[in-house]
Amino acid sequence: MHAHKENHAFEPKIVAFVCTWCTYAGADLAGTARLQYPANTRVVKFPCTGRIDPVFILRAFQKGADGVLVSGCHPGDCHYMAGNFHARRRFAAFRALLDFIGVDLNRLQFSWVSAAEGGKWVEVATELTERVRAMGPMREFRELETEEQWSGAIDTPELQAAYEAIP
Amino acid sequence: MSRIGVFVCHCGENIARTVDVEKVAAEAARLPGVAYATDYKYMCSDPGQNLLKNAVAEHRLDGIVVAACSPRMHEKTFRNAAKSAGLNPFLCEMANIREHCSWVHEDRDEATAKASDIVAMMVARVKKDKRLVPITVPVTKRALVIGGGIAGIQAALDIADAGHQVVLVEREPSIGGHMAQLSETFPTLDCSQCIMTPKMVDAANHPNITLHTYSEIESVDGYIGNFQITVRKKARSVIEEKCTGCGVCSAKCPQKKIPNAFDKNLGTRPAIYVPFPQAVPNTPVIDRANCTWFKTGKCGVCQKVCGPGAIDYEQEDRLIVEPVGAIVVATGFELYSITEKPKGSPIKGYGEFGHGTIPDVIDGLTFERLASASGPTGGKILRPSDGREPKQVVFVQCVGSRAREKGISYCSKICCMYTAKHTMLYKHKVHDGQAYVFFMDARTPGKSYDEFWRRAIEEEEAVYIRGMVSRLYQKGDKIVVMGSDVHVGVQVEIEADLVVLATAVQPRAGADTLAQKLGISYDSYHFYSEAHAKLKPVECATAGIYLAGACQGPKDIPDTVSQASAAAAKVMTLFAKDELEREPIVAKVNEKNCVACLYCKKVCPYGAVEEKEIRDRQGNLIRVVAYVNPGVCGGCGTCQASCPSKSVELDGYTDEQIMAMIEAL
Ligand SMILES: Cc1cc2nc3c(=O)[nH]c(=O)nc-3n(C[C@H](O)[C@H](O)[C@H](O)COP(=O)(O)OP(=O)(O)OC[C@H]3O[C@@H](n4cnc5c(N)ncnc54)[C@H](O)[C@@H]3O)c2cc1C
Ligand code: SF4
Ligand code: SF4
Description:
The complex is a heterodimer.
Chain A: E1 14-19, H1 20-32, E2 41-46, H2 54-62, E3 67-72, H3 83-100, E4 108-112, H4 118-135, H5 140-147, H6 157-164
Parallel strand pairs in A: 1-2, 1-3, 3-4
Helix pairs in contact in A: 1-4
Chain B: E1 4-9, H1 21-29, E2 34-40, H2 46-58, E3 63-68, H3 71-84, E4 92-96, H4 98-102, H5 108-128, E5 135-138, E6 142-146, H6 150-161, E7 165-169, E8 184-185, E9 190-191, H7 192-205, E10 209-212, E11 215-223, E12 226-233, H8 248-252, E13 258-259, E14 268-269, E15 272-273, E16 285-286, H9 292-296, H10 301-305, E17 318-324, E18 326-329, E19 333-335, E20 361-363, H11 364-371, E21 392-399, H12 415-429, E22 434-439, H13 449-458, E23 463-466, E24 469-475, E25 478-485, E26 490-496, E27 498-503, E28 505-507, H14 511-518, E29 545-547, H15 557-575, E30 579-582, E31 587-589, H16 599-603, E32 609-615, E33 621-628, H17 638-642, E34 648-650, H18 655-663
Flavin-adenine dinucleotide binds next to helix 6, strand 11, strand 19, helix 11 and helix 12 of chain B.
């Protein structure tokens, strides 16, 4: 069976931060089983989701990712016993922060994919790709970087209003 | 400027079919820092590896990216090749363009573009790679065996015979496990006690084996070659060193009517007891919940009659630390209980079988105790309710097993065989009796197994009825068994005197708690998981921990013993070396930056972070910093992601390396 190839106006870049033991192996299994999914994901391998610093996610968005996937072992199955629990807590807090600074949380997906879940890897990667494709490119961070809005110029009416409101 | 070499593998057709490998190599050649890029049909083959080695010399490469299969497949291969070419192996990385690319995408342009991206990311990474040197750690040549059933005993004896010290920890007052409870064993019908008790005694007397019975694992620290085990020796209330095992205390104990769990509660025992006469060690324990002294503060008979003065009512649990280098887990199984509805378990009970409310509906292990010459009936098959000899016995197989709707979908593997055995033992003891067996299929693979089963039918005249039992109910002093015979296509009703249910084999209650202490994985039923179903059937994924017996899955004795000896052989292989090499993927603290918040210490799952005092030459304390013990560090990197001052870094996964990959997007 050949998947029907469609041409989309926009192909998002998805960066996947995964742990070696579960999700990386799960993605390998998807390969061994010859399952098919969109070619948008780029995998960055970590020993454990516990190693994933939220800064990496910010940096990925800045550097052109339109969606980020973070995936590791199921709770209780961490190769390092508890790394994924620390990750879970850290990302719970981090999501709130992202939300606060205005990043659409639909661009960020956390999931658990075990070494035996090649099918689930395909599902997660496909779903996120399709979702982000529909959302269009992620501009906010990249523009920040390229346009150097940190210059201090008060160049929008909102900023001007805010500036004037300072007593 | 770096001099990176990129090698793009065709993997025969596996990669080249969907990825334009030449284009990937050509694009790689244009990346900054790449000194050499090529493609080759099979990089892992001998000529492929030579190509890599020659290129290192010829182009003076200081980093390598092999774009091929998953690093889980061949990272070792290529790192070794790099090493033999004189390059530090940790300067060699793999770009996974097979499992993560050519195999999962069909469009050639897309797959090629993705492969180029993956290569670019790995090139960026390899430029930030540091030379790392494997860490060597000493091996403590002492083994821990958890569980003293036949699996644990066999493993302990093998390792001890090879000349190594073994610590054998058993939860119950005696070793022996289930095999000590069995009557005669298939397929040869030799008496279980006769083959088991000598092994138990051997284990107890072996100069290399330290036995801790009535003990449990409190905690496990460390790693392969260097575990620290804390064993909780529960208070026996009897001083082991003083007790001679004369048994006077048990004989004189006024509390005599306590159901004996070893006999499946068919018989009784005193409050100070050994579970069975051949127990090893033969030292009794006081069951404090049922002891008059502990309940009322009066009695003290055992203390008065004990010649050597071995009774100690004040005894407390003791914690003993045992350093070991390897662990064999052999905690065995439990039978699915029809008497108690399993609490909090996803597994459903058997209301239709009376849930253990009908006294003459028993499980297979109870039948073993009835048939055992040293059992509560002296080997006579008698009904628990009225002590009468049953003339019609119905055996029901697959109770709980292969029953998805009840919550267990696996086959318990041993019940077909032991039920056939039970029909034979019954016929040998009750000549005019009739055995019926309800079964789904007879699964008898194994040497002499099918012949054994046929003998039950052809010589011992057991009537096998293919079909399931739908209901059991008491009618007078009979039990009516309602079932179907699918061969004949009729409903059957049998009025039985005794019903024996072959209930499912399950892991021990608490198997998950022990697994969490050990850091090993288990399946959804809590059977422990081997590292590879075919190629690593006795190793756990956690290095230095091995599995034996029914804790890994339902097993009969021959399979249990084979696995136990295999696990022992693995331990001996490990002990053949004085030192172990391990990957240097460990965290290091930058002491200049560390502010000693010790947040890393809180999050480290391995307890690898210690406090280090920095002192000047006079010995005055200047400040405290975090220190990671490289022997204990598991290499997860949780500390690094948690450190607010960015003072701890995981070798092999530094911020620089990861950031380089992200920037190459
Ligand atoms: C009714 C019946 C009849 C059978 N008949 C036969 C037969 O005829 N032939 C045959 O080949 N097989 C037979 N078997 C199978 C046989 O009993 C098993 O293959 C064998 O007992 C498995 O041995 P084991 O050591 O793995 O487990 P077990 O015998 O269960 O031993 C495990 C030991 O570990 C201890 N333990 C558990 N948890 C801990 C812990 N956390 N810490 C410390 N110690 C712990 C337990 O107390 C126990 O002593 C029969 C089984 C049943 C149920
Ligand atoms: S009477 Fe004393 S020595 Fe004898 S078995 Fe009891 S505790 Fe041991
Ligand atoms: S990497 Fe850090 S957190 Fe993980 S085991 Fe090592 S010291 Fe502990």
